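MODEL INPUT / OUTPUT PAIR
PAIR INDEX: 1
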Amino acid sequence: MRTAPGGYPHPMAGTEDAYTAEPFVPRRGGLPALREAAADCRGCPLHRAATQTVFGAGKASARVMLVGEQPGDQEDRQGKPFVGPAGKLLDRALTDAGIDPADAYVTNAVKHFKFTRAEPRKRRIHKAPTLREMTACGPWLAAELDRVAPELIVVLGATAGKALLGSSFRVTQVRGTVLEEEIHGRPERLVPTVHPSAVLRADDREGAYRGLVSDLEIAARALG
């Protein structure tokens, strides 16, 4: 157990077992304060294998927040969300839908890269986070929503949807619709769609891309 000076239990001791980021989230300060604090998050064991925390990026004044699943390999190495192939595709889709990527805040439901390796030194293979891990990271997403207060949330894929809307969420049932739900105590409008990585994996990539753009066009119209 970690101890504080004098041998008393450290206030952060046992937090991993508790599976919550709550003790690490500062009550005050803006996005820079959140980002700095998140770098030291030990709210679940995912931080152990990851290179670093990958916090959200964008303006506090952003009208739209895009929420994905978790960082990928490139995001983990660079410390920024959506900088890999899926992020580049998302920027193109946003632009085609009439949303300036520079005006969006992008983040993930889980802030550490979860992966597996078939063999040591082999390529790191993405592994989906569990509901417990998503719940543990929830306080960071709640804090981001509080600081940014977006007019609209674009939900990218099933994992982000479950993190925000519960385990019964099915992206195929509600994609391209405007939902009104209470999220972390705030009334929010949300437009679910597929994660851009699903487009990259699709057999009909062009058709999947058109579907993503179509959903994002609905988000653009909802923004007005």
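PAIR INDEX: 2
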Amino acid sequence: MTTTTPARTTARLDLKGLAPEVSAAMGELHRAAVRAARAAGVEPELLELVRIRASQLNGCAFCLDMHTKDARAQGETEQRIHTLATWRETPFFTERERAALALTEAVTSLQDGHVPDEVYAAAREVFDEPQVAAVIWAAVVINAYNRTAISARMVPGAYQPAPRT
């Protein structure tokens, strides 16, 4: 007989409530990264792919729930969301998206040898410097959020995207 441990359905602690100033600073870092991406001309849809891919690599259910919903609200297809984990094996992603995803994976998995020169060079072929910086910041911010959500065992499911205007 095989036994399984039920999934955790309760949060471990309320990080936001216990350290509201840190939570506010994280929120401002996120907003600053979004502003930088917007100013650099990086598409919001591409940023959601970055957030989803980093969250997949980190195993963050809370952020995956949030960002797949946000991506759908921005018009992303189910096919691309479902195949994002295997983006290298699909024809569904543009060269620009592929460069951003490779850079995101390198930033997320630094223990695998840092960000390789060839990954950075591929990103520079399709992004200018401010855009590369924006993608890196987006990856850094979502990695920080993944770590807080996983550590606090934030429960996925309740998040709903803001209505589109």
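PAIR 2 NOTE: Residues 106 and 114 are 7 Å apart (CA to CA).
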